[in-house]
Amino acid sequence: MDLRATPAEEAFRADLRAWLATTLPTLPEKPAHTDWQARRAYDTHWQELLFAAGYAGIDWPLEAGGRGASPVEQLIFKEECERAGAPYVGLGFVGLLHAGPTINAEGNEAQRTTYLPKILSGEHVWCQGFSEPGAGSDLASLRTRAVRDGDHYVVTGSKIWTSHAEVADYCELLVRTGTEESRHKGITWLIMDMKSPGIEVRPLKTISGSTEFAELFLDDVRIPVENRVGDENDGWRVTMVTLSFERGTGFVGELLESMRLLRSLTALAKDTGAFGDPGIRRRIGQLSASFDSLWALTKRTVSEAQVTGIPGIGGTVFKLAYSEAGQRLADLSMELLGEAGLAMSPLATSGVDLNNDEWVEAWIKSFNLTIAAGTSQIQRNIVSERILGLPKEPQVTGGSK
Amino acid sequence: MDLRATPAEEAFRADLRAWLATTLPTLPEKPAHTDWQARRAYDTHWQELLFAAGYAGIDWPLEAGGRGASPVEQLIFKEECERAGAPYVGLGFVGLLHAGPTINAEGNEAQRTTYLPKILSGEHVWCQGFSEPGAGSDLASLRTRAVRDGDHYVVTGSKIWTSHAEVADYCELLVRTGTEESRHKGITWLIMDMKSPGIEVRPLKTISGSTEFAELFLDDVRIPVENRVGDENDGWRVTMVTLSFERGTGFVGELLESMRLLRSLTALAKDTGAFGDPGIRRRIGQLSASFDSLWALTKRTVSEAQVTGIPGIGGTVFKLAYSEAGQRLADLSMELLGEAGLAMSPLATSGVDLNNDEWVEAWIKSFNLTIAAGTSQIQRNIVSERILGLPKEPQVTGGSK
Amino acid sequence: MNFQLSDDQVALRDGLLSLLDGRYDLDAVRSVEGQASVVERSRWAELADAGVFAILASEADGGLGLGRVEAAVALEALGAHLVPGPLVGSIIAGQRMASAASGEVLVGLHSRSAGGSLPRLLELPNDCDGYLVLPGTGEGAAPVTYVERSTLATTQVPTSLDPLTPLAQLAAPIADGEEFSSAADPVRRDALLLTAAYEVGLASFSLWRAVAYAKDRHQFNRPIGSFQAIKHLLADELARLEQARVAVAYAATITDQPEVAVIDGEVNGLSATECTWRAVASAKLLADTAALSAAKTAVQVHGGMGYTWEVPIHLAMKRARVLATTLGTSDHMAEIVAALTR
Amino acid sequence: MNFQLSDDQVALRDGLLSLLDGRYDLDAVRSVEGQASVVERSRWAELADAGVFAILASEADGGLGLGRVEAAVALEALGAHLVPGPLVGSIIAGQRMASAASGEVLVGLHSRSAGGSLPRLLELPNDCDGYLVLPGTGEGAAPVTYVERSTLATTQVPTSLDPLTPLAQLAAPIADGEEFSSAADPVRRDALLLTAAYEVGLASFSLWRAVAYAKDRHQFNRPIGSFQAIKHLLADELARLEQARVAVAYAATITDQPEVAVIDGEVNGLSATECTWRAVASAKLLADTAALSAAKTAVQVHGGMGYTWEVPIHLAMKRARVLATTLGTSDHMAEIVAALTR
């Protein structure tokens, strides 16, 4: 057990911190949450800066144009960026975290050359077309159909939870090429140009009022066969390769953000006098302990990945535990805000640093913690089967509704 | 909605209260928990007194020799007995609450004449032979085998969770008469004389250190065919008739006891100063609210039974909610006792009414609340399927292990 | 004893439900989402015609002369339809203000007690004509007064958490108006009780929506409602809902039948008034929990769809948050009950 | 950074586990259940021979000169085997008392802080030769002293909750003995940390027993471990266990590597000592929760069998209750962490 930084890790952190200190003040003001074109411009500008400084694709291999940083360096990168208040990966996340790594691992030379550099440089924005209205937790039941027509696949169906589809250049798309019952064995992974005719993007309003997500309706969209990554009907395996990149440090930004929010909530509790209530204090202490342990868990997971290349059991456990702690934090914040927690626009205050709008939005978003990126129910299945070795449930076969 | 007592209900309560006031002081001292013969004598004496006063079989029909009291009167009976500190039904419970009602409903004239009066008068004590080591939640998988041999069934197998088997005269016994795979359709309900050769009773020590329960080992025990209640292989239905008597007011005594314990814990918290902690106070308030609502729920359930003959949805919900509230009470008590909660024998105190041994035993027993009489997992299945109408899980057929 | 709805009470409930199904279906309710004013006066008048706001007013005053049980039955039905507006305040005001009972005047509630150093808000600022103002907890036996909306200085809050509960920020604490009732305690108790009844309706809305979705939605070739993970979540919500519902019924009944409060109080070493307070605070506590928990579970059961604006669960979730806050939080209720546990 | 056990630490753990499998199997541990003395001196000597009680003593003093990480590794292994006796006290005493490090003298722990008006107990009164006495929280910078068992007036408690933790009631608060350490704070911190490590072992015992049973036990023609109701209970326990385990590892590591506590403290506005306290209190809090919750779940998964004395889960459950109480409860730990959250 060694938590001391190596000289190389220290140097990496120092360089990054210096770069962030000089670079962040040059950024323009953050655009409005609803102005998609401005957000694209802002996020891709940040990606250009990262690219120029050699931080683009921090986790990508050197030969793919990335930084090839070690897992510990990746963690330091996320930690320093979060602490310095740097922009999130933003609109670049599908390209940088999903599509790019998949193309690098499973694509052919031409695909790598065509797509990877422009993801790294921020020129291209990608979106994801995996989930469907009828295929959420059970992704393998997806029904968006691709029919071969000469050198093209002709794709019809619909996708949901597609982030920032309005401004994306490409979409990583899963389609059914096998029979209706083929499930995992009849899925293909395609690159879809978002300018293709037949794509309709319909914004999907969430319960926080944002339109971060969209539905995609695909009507005879023609996609060249050369845009297929991996073999036909081998898309499930290709996808699993992508998903395996998600584990480990996936929620580090969110965790550090929760830790910051807890500190700020503690300050608020002191301002309002609620900190004088031992019941409230204990809840703050419990949350603090949970977040600290999840931060330690992250370090252990990263250490395992560093040594063995595999992140170990920490990542799966992390998601389950973090999402519940995050909800407890959000609930506590609403209780401490009282009536002020009923307003989503900033309230006028005297003396108290309230930020009620931020808290209320965080509370609403907390409902999604146990749903997005795999519901807690699915996470518990994974933990109990893959880690505890408990038997799977009996499978039901036959036509789905 | 009317919570006012009718004149008849008031009269019933007044008579009972007067009778309890004169009768309870005549009772001998309670015997030691471990002295089974003395406990039998004590409990059957109490039953004789109830019988003489016309309170025996309060819920049994008049024609079976019972009181034929209305559901509301039954509730009043339990309430007044609990509040007056009267003995529990004790060793009589299997005869009075399970076996007797079953024989009355499903037995023949000879069986009713032979067994019912002696249950009511306290002369006979019964025990229950339903659960088996391999058949708990899944009672229908029981394997104790009965083979017909002329006018007898020859029974071999084992039973578990048999209360006070050491001093019982008869056992209501479920046996398999059908094929191994027959499940619900191959079970028969028998009356077993506990003096029959081939019965071995082995005490089963619980985690509280008591031997309230026993295992029964049956080796070629011969039971006359005339002791069969209902048809051969019809025992599941016969049993369900019994179980349906269990609902409604089944846990009233426990609930009233929990309410008493909460009052006493509140007094202790005031003695120790813990009541000055708002976090502790709120937990007391939450428990108080839960128990009060379960008491109101009981009244609603009883009212439904009074009017429609069917207790409605309250009983199933009650068990689920009560068992969790009871565990929260037990946990709170241990936190308030602190170190004193680590001793199961009474501690010397000055000034504080501690009763630490009672609290510690209640804590240990609280673990059984979510297990006995149907685990909470099984209760949730029942609630979700029978009340919410959610679909059953896919059944797995085939040989059980 | 017959602790069930009487035939008259069932008829009242069914009549109201039938009105609400027709005139306050989900589309109608949702049509005013996010607007500064959420009460359509013509629909409000229909509720008034059905006697909703006259339910507690005496027959001598032209009211229905019914009790808290009936009022709670009505509020649960209104909650199960997510009906917006100052329902509880108008029903309470309707006891003594003919203009509220008739639906002409909409009366909100405001309690000076909560707040501390944090900003104070006014609910439904563009719908209410006036407010019943309850004194703060430190103010002793101060009266409940009625103030006209027009006398209050406020700033509109552009976006409120609940799109069906618009808000304004108060520029200053509300001063007393004309006396509505010299005793604040019974008014506060009724307000908490009726709010709890509405919350039971919300919980019921969330639960049954989730149950319906769980039966319909298939994943892994099964309705998701056949998975124990889903079934057991919903079973626990039913248990919470039933506990809250029966707690509301009990509190309402003993408020209407004080002789029962005397007897039940004796058992617990409490006066009839204390016994009633314990019952009301318990009901509010359990109803807060039931409404918030059912909504959370319903979002979870709906999965990603539960996180969309289109699925109406978030409306129940947000309203539950509002109602669990404004007249006294669950923590306050638990403190009241603890102080009355002896 | 490499936040994993080093090869040496793995070897230490595996060596100890192998000793424990051989000499402290469940039968051996259970053979002393309910007895007034639960430590078999010959087995204790074997632990001493393996260096358990010399683990923190410096090499100059003939100890192993290892750190809290190694001590925590050892305690987790001992906890997973339910090993009874004054392990934590003897390890801490072993730093400065050769007789404790060698296993000749068994040293218990006693904190004057808990209690108030309630009776005070002494753990393992017939096994310990002496006790390290920690000052009460109101006593300022009082030292830790060592008192001989023979000087303490006690009454035996006939039945203790945990049949492997016999108790006596103290006739009077324990007075100071000879000074063991002038600073109580680091001793208390080590005691909490090592107790937390033992609790992680208990949680692991309960969880893996329950998992094994869930795979083996069939009902409704399926292993019960294939039902989501069971699987998800156990998955949540694993999450609690892993959080506790990594919190213990973190607290142990920064105690051993104070330069890390300096850096981590700066991020949170804390001194290195405060940072370490927050980590230790967090670890104890999470370990209390993990051990109690895993035992409860394991009882539930075992169903009726879990309620029998024969199945050993209750031993883990009762020990967890003892350890979550004596040196400072979860509530105390949460208060410490909250005070250090800025």
Which class of secondary structure composition applies to the elements of chain C?
alpha+beta
The CATH class of the largest domain in chain A: Mainly Alpha
Strand percentage of chain A, roughly? 5-15%
For the residues shown, what is the average pLDDT of chain C? 96
**Average pLDDT for all residues of chain A:** 93
The CATH topology annotation of the largest domain in chain A reads as Butyryl-CoA Dehydrogenase, subunit A, domain 3
Strand content of chain C: 5-15%
Total number of distinct structural domains of chain A: 3
Blueprint of the fold:
The complex is a heterotetramer, with two copies of chain A (401 residues) and two copies of chain C (342 residues).
Chain A: H1 7-23, H2 36-53, H3 71-84, H4 93-106, H5 109-121, E1 126-129, E2 145-149, E3 152-163, E4 170-176, E5 187-193, E6 199-204, E7 213-224, E8 228-229, H6 235-244, H7 252-272, H8 278-308, H9 314-337, H10 356-366, H11 376-387
Parallel strand pairs in A: 1-4
Antiparallel strand pairs in A: 2-3, 3-7, 4-5, 5-8, 6-7
Helix pairs in contact in A: 1-3, 3-7, 4-5, 4-6, 7-8, 7-9, 8-9, 9-10, 9-11
Chain C: H1 7-23, H2 26-30, H3 41-49, H4 68-80, H5 87-94, H6 98-101, E1 107-111, E2 121-123, E3 130-134, E4 144-148, E5 154-156, E6 167-170, E7 178-181, H7 184-216, E8 218-219, E9 222-223, H8 228-256, H9 258-267, H10 272-302, H11 313-323, H12 330-339
Parallel strand pairs in C: 1-3
Antiparallel strand pairs in C: 2-6, 3-4, 4-7, 5-6, 8-9
Helix pairs in contact in C: 1-4, 4-7, 7-8, 7-10, 7-11, 8-9, 8-10, 9-10, 10-11, 10-12
Structure description:
The complex is a heterotetramer, with two copies of chain A (401 residues) and two copies of chain C (342 residues). Chain A is of the alpha+beta class and 401 residues long. Chain A folds into three domains: 7-88, no CATH class; 126-234, Butyryl-CoA Dehydrogenase, subunit A, domain 2, CATH 2.40.110; 251-387, Butyryl-CoA Dehydrogenase, subunit A, domain 3. Chain A contains eleven helices and eight strands. Chain A has helices at residues 7-23, 36-53, 71-84, 93-106, 109-121, 235-244, 252-272, 278-308, 314-337, 356-366, 376-387, and strands spanning 126-129, 145-149, 152-163, 170-176, 187-193, 199-204, 213-224, 228-229. In chain A, strands 1-4-5-8 form a four-stranded mixed beta sheet. A four-stranded antiparallel beta sheet of chain A has the order 2-3-7-6, with no helix packed on it. In chain A, a hairpin with an 8-residue loop joins strand 6 (199-204) and strand 7 (213-224). In chain A, helix 4 crosses helix 6 (235-244) and helix 9 crosses helix 10 (356-366). The radius of gyration of chain A is 22 Å and the shape is globular. Chain A starts with 6 loop residues before the first helix and ends in a 14-residue tail after the last helix. Chain C is an alpha+beta fold. Chain C is built from twelve helices and nine strands. Chain C has helices at 7-23, 26-30, 41-49, 68-80, 87-94, 98-101, 184-216, 228-256, 258-267, 272-302, 313-323, 330-339, and strands at residues 107-111, 121-123, 130-134, 144-148, 154-156, 167-170, 178-181, 218-219, 222-223. Chain C has a four-stranded mixed beta sheet with strand order 1-3-4-7, covered by helices on one side. The two termini of chain C are 26 Å apart.
